[in-house]
Amino acid sequence: MELKVEEEIFPTAGAFTISRGSRTEIRVVTVTLRDDVHVGRGECVPYARYDETVDSVMEEIRDLSQDLKNGLNRQYLQSRLPAGAARNGLDCAFWDLEARREGKPVWQLAGKERPKPLVTAYTLSLGEPDSMRAKAGENAHRPLLKVKLGTDGDLERIEAVREGAPHATIIVDANEGWSVEQYHELAPQFVRLGVAMVEQPLPAGNDDALKGIERPLPVCADESCHDRASLPSLEGKYDLINIKVDKTGGLTEAFALEQAARQSGYGIMVGCMLGTSLAMAPAFLVAQQADYVDLDGPLLLAADREPGFIFDESVMAMPENGLWG
After folding, report:
1. SS (H, E, C) 138-155
2. Per-position DSSP letters for 175-224, written without gaps between them
3. Which residues, 6 or more positions from 27, have their beta carbon under 8 angstroms from its beta carbon?
4. pTM for the whole structure
5. Is the dihedral of CA 271, 272, 276, 278 positive or negative?
6. d(Cα 159, Cα 179) in Å, to the nearest integer?
7. 116 is known as an active-site residue
8. What is the tens place of the pLDDT at every residue in 153-174?
9. 69 given a catalytic annotation
10. Which SS3 state, helix, strand or coil, does residue 296 take?
């Protein structure tokens, strides 16, 4: 088994801003597995919030070169690496390789139904209310808008977005930027403005204040939920979880987390780091029955891979051949 690991850089369509900072490009790690005949690929997005860098993730993957020569497979990989970007890149490359070896799509190998087109959220970067109102107006035709928040003035931002997009469903992402007092203050106002839910209002690891409180605005765990091992700590605090393959460490665990979370009564959101269509493809399979889909990464880039997802405004569909799986 031949392993290739490389960094690739893609420009964003303008600055993308959240409460932790702004970026004008993304740096992703592309993993390629090659046997004598077939090639499988995966993309992962190292995330500083989880102490990951492009260099550390590439080193983590390359350290398995000998294991691959000795027969490392996708099943053994689950215990060989922890959940995170490195395992995700390899796991998704394994799935792609298996599909090409078998001559069957990944959805069929996984025992799933043929994937259908999905409506994805479209993300509005954090900014001043006036600029966010204008951006919302430009995208008012989209059925689902996701708004980045997490600093002072969040109520004014949502009021501005609602003025710009009076009919869209709005979900918000606080990126761990609120206190429980801010949640109590903002939740009823956001409900009045038609906001459907908030992602990760409190910092992960400091979210016990959510336990048992009245939550008029449903709360979705993002940074607090990585894989199935996260679920016991979420009880009584969250109404939904956000599944991202870079957090779960790949499609294998993402499927398992989705099933376990549903059995525990959580709503499901399937999200992404800011990546290309290659990173969205595995998540697209997990998202088929999700309550909220947030796989707009390619829409936020100035340039995507070819072939990439086919977008009709906010409706996304997998290309027939050549991308993944």
Report:
1. HCCCCCEEEEECCCCCHH
2. TT---HHHHHHHHHHHHHTTEEEEE--S-TTS-GGGTT---SS-EEESTT
3. 7, 8, 9, 46, 54
4. 0.96
5. negative
6. 20
7. no
8. 999 999 999 999 999 999 999 9
9. no
10. coil
For residue range 207-257, list pLDDT tens digits in order: 999 998 999 999 999 999 999 999 999 999 999 999 999 999 999 999 999
Contacts of 304 (CB under 8 A, 6+ apart): 10, 276, 277, 298
Which of 133, 203, 202 has the alpha carbon at shortest distance from 170? Answer: 133
Report residue 283 as tokens.
Answer: 């998540």
Of these residues, 135, 237, 244, 247, which one is catalytic? 244
The token duo for 10 is 């893609």
The type of residue at 195 is: V
Alpha-carbon dihedral sign for residues 172, 280, 46, 75 = positive
Element (H, E) at 101: helix 85-102
Residue identified by tokens 């190998």 is 109
Q: How far apart are CA 6 and CA 28, in angstroms?
A: 8
Is residue 16 within 8 A of residue 22, CB to CB? The reply is: yes
Q: What is the Cα–Cα distance from 297 to 301, expressed in whole angstroms? A: 7
135, 146, 148, 247: the active-site residue: 148
Under 8 Å between Cβ of 265 and 247: no
Residue-wise pLDDT for 296-308, tens only, equals 999 999 999 999 9
